[in-house]
Design goal:
single chain; about 350 residues; alpha/beta; inorganic pyrophosphatase (n-terminal core); Diaminopimelate Epimerase, Chain A, domain 1; 2 domains; 5-stranded parallel beta sheet; 13 helices
Amino acid sequence: MHDSAAETAPFPTVTLEEIADAFPSFGRTLILTHVNPDGDCVGSAFALAHLIEATGKEARVVCPTPLPRRLRFLAGNDETADRTVLAAGEAEGYDTLLAVDVASPVQLGDFAPLIPRVRFLIDHHGLGTPFAPHLVDPKASAAGEIVSRLYALLRDRGTVPVLPEAARCLYAAIAADTGSFAFSNTTEETMRTAGALLSEINADAAKTGRPDTAEICRILFAQRTFRELTAERHTVEGLRFFEDGRLAAVLFTQQNLADWGLTEEDIGNAVDTPRAVEGVLVALSLRQQKADPRAYKVSSRANADVNCAAVCARFGGGGHVRAAGCTITADTPEEALAVAAAAFGEAIRTWTADHT
């Protein structure tokens, strides 16, 4: 299943079978992720690396921005996690480049010059700009769900054996993008896929003592640092409400982070706090960027089918109906918040009018 953006792009769509057919031809492989990589992106990328390595080829996952501390466990060890940093010129030593969970070129950040060399893109975002031959399925809950299908196909063909570590990465990817299977993007297919992974992971855990699915979810959702708890406190204190309480937002400036002793990583999940407030239809977090103080990264999450992706697309971003992101340029933090509140407020009013 491909979205309309994918169908009209100047790059061909490809099938799962075509990617599987190409697997034996992959050489030394570099797997590209998006800026500020999340659990789905990281889990899917490292799962792909496990699949490629099982065919006897070298594979390396790299991130245009630092790999979040809480997701380093998906790399398997610190050495692999540290190698997600790509030095200038290192990409020249790789024969095959893949991209996963990257909706558009801008999400590649400093990796954008590598786009002409990307052989395949695997993604699940409904609004995006494919930049290579691509498999895009917006009905999939996560990129990890698509890579899970690839894993099953390669295993059925005998191309790869059972790979519990790949399964762990894929389960984490799907759990992360579905909010531990609580979000509306969770489908019957999602649960079937996760169930098959669960059986494989927990059978291996019983024999080896490696993490089972409960431990994976504990790390993803129930383990926080003291600084993250500090960030949550400041998030609650800084909540702003619009549209009669239907829109909630929190704004972080670089000065805030300096004053509180926090980093970008500490506030990475801040949008979940306003989203949890009763009556909120859309939640936003805005983060002023250190490299460009006039740029504010916006994360949006909806509790109804208010089309966040369409709003974010107006600012050059994208994503899913209920989860999307973009960057707003403004002279002051308050101006950025006002622009975001106006855009998402309009979407909320339109959705409300259609559902009353």
